[in-house]
Amino acid sequence: MKTLSSLLPVLRLVVVLFATLPALAFAMAGDAQDPVMRAMRDELARSMAQLQLENLEKPYFISYRVQEARSQSVAAQFGSALGRNESRNRFVIVEVRVGSPALDNSNFQPSGFGSGPVGANLSTDDDYDAIRRQLWLATDRAYKQSVELLSKKKAVLQNKTRTEIIPDFSAQEPATITDLNPGAPIDLAQAETLARELSAVFREFPAVATSAVRVGATEETTRYVNSEGTSFVRSGFQVSLRATAATQADDGFPLDDHAFIVARSWATLPPKADLLASVRDVGRRVTAQRTAGLLEQYNGPVLFEGQAAAEIFAQVIAPNFSARPRPVVETSGRGGPRGSGGPAENPFLDKLGARVLPDFFTVTDNPTLPSLNGAPLFGESRVDDEGVPARPVTLVEKGRLKTLLASRAPVRGVPRSTGSMQDGTPVPSNLIVTAADGLDAATLKVELLKLLEQRGKDYGVIVRRLANSSLGSGASPGGRGNSRAEPVLVAVKVFPDGREEPLRNIEVAGIDPPSFKDILVAGREPFINTVPFQGVICSFAVPSLLFEDLTLKKPSGEIGKPPIAKHPFFDR
User: Fold this and answer.
1) Cβ contacts of 544 within 8 Å, gap of 6 or more
2) Is 8-240 a CATH 3.30.2290 domain?
3) Looking at the predicted structure, is the pLDDT value of residue 464 above 80?
4) Which of 135, 260, 387, 543 could in theory staple to 523 by disulfide, Cβ–Cβ 3.0 to 4.6 A?
5) Nearest to 540 by CA among 304, 382, 344
6) Are strands 118-121 and 80-100 parallel, antiparallel or unpaired?
7) pLDDT class of 208 with cuts at 50, 70, 90
8) Minimal CA–CA distance to 567: which of 213, 90, 247, 98?
9) pLDDT at residue 431 greater than cutoff 80
């Protein structure tokens, strides 16, 4: 007769199988035709049943996230092709947690030791046996790392007094989700022809020193399973076009600009005439900047109009909506005592319930929304990277901070995931800002002129575009310094009679989240700006913003002298 102890491994396997029952229906329907998903499920069940080093803890949670990307791109410069590229890769992220949800190996920053989920390349051939072996090796490595991390973390905590006890992992109901939005590969020859035609536009602008156009398409497929029974398959397809141009003013200050266009397919890209116009606008803006005036320093009302409003909100406020727990740190990295130092805590954790914007503002992140006012949004998703269903989240209501975007790692005041985990951190998807009683563009400018009269200012400033370093713009001789905003690309002085004069090379000095509480009025219609944000594509819908008082100045630091010789194409 078998003893209870001899039956324990079998019982554990039965528990694992029952825990995964919600996902088995999906498995029966699709896994037989998907060797990758079948290998993930089989190796997960085996690991949960058998993975354990002698006298050490078993995993209480394992997840596999397999990301597969197929990319195509072409680049062109000044009418000539620079090359084509096609690639396909498959990568697995293995998360193994030992201990308990209250205290496990995560949320720990060791000294001189790897931490976090383990990644490994997977075969791009759908070979079940090869994928099982690669998953086994990655899981073994992740488990050994996890038990060592937990041991180190417990040792550090023995010499610390914790001021607050927050679990390392939050509970989540199992879910099975399919979110498939595939796309057809683009014709690289056709894409190269388009890139060459667009890049040739810069032959019309002798003032532009360097320029480039890149056209690309990416299809990403993510498969996910975890030991709680959650699974999902998600795919998405995007086509993007990026045009950049740069030059220098006569005094040497760098000048640049860009255009970034995203579509869900080749067919839904804007018409060629519109793309040519967008690229031509980049050349015109860079050329116009060369003769624009410099601003030594300005303190006073500033209107961020249209695109600039979406950019300043994304750069200064949006990063603070991400709730990331502060890790337990083994050393400070500066010779400090064990358990000190580490990254600074998000200041918005102490602002929950407090006013962070004027009381006429509401901010919502909505990954379920495909479009707004007829314009497409590109942060749409049904599920995040941890298998948590995506949902709308009201972040700010009537100016007060209600919650933050969170993963399954709880933080003070936000105990559960909001379904916002993407690429390793909780981030916005479609961030929508609305202002009650917003004004139209003409009335906003009138309000700015009234402020100038009240303050006795000779002029005000309207900002219309900011740089974005992830899109190849934002050169600044002195860097960004303490400012969290990118340099200004397009701005004008506006005089009491409404007359405007262009400005160049401006930095927004000292702007921070508290500055946004001093916004006086906002626009009626939001400007939708889709940009890369912390590794993912996000859409920001933000109305124009009128600040009562900001400091603008020209960059400081050394700058290079302009080229001595002319551009060879125009020196004929």
Assistant:
1) 303, 304, 305, 306, 309, 441, 444, 522, 523, 527
2) yes
3) yes
4) 543
5) 304
6) antiparallel
7) very high
8) 247
9) yes
